[in-house]
Amino acid sequence: MRAVVTRVKHASVTIEGTVTGQIGEGYLVLLGVAPGDTEETAVKLAEKICNLRVFEDENEKMNLNLEQVGGSLLVISQFTLFADTSSRRPGFSGAAKPDLAIPLYEKFMAHCRERGFTVEHGEFGAKMEVDSLNHGPVTILFDTEN
Question: Looking at the chain, which terminus has fewer C-beta neighbours within 10 angstroms, N or C?
């Protein structure tokens, strides 16, 4: 799995003119699934992101996690994170097919909810408009193969 996690002041996703998910302070998570990923991969990545300490404490040090600031997550499916960019027109055969990707995308979100977080999301495969205010800016790439 790959995830691009951005610390945000707020974020939202709109589909066909309707806001379908929005959060205040927290993480915008662009999440991609690879063919070899499993439920275990999804849970491990969710844990890593939920425990990530990139919010500032009283000394302006990135020392607090999502729980400590009462943050939420907006999770957007993003098969393009597995783009093959060896040519000018990217290919996406490195991304998992929907029959695998959808359950793992949902497992990732379910685990975050089980941890007590509010999780908003887009719609798998939909054309979405994502709006966010990056706080920092702080953006971190996760790749479970590394």
Answer: C
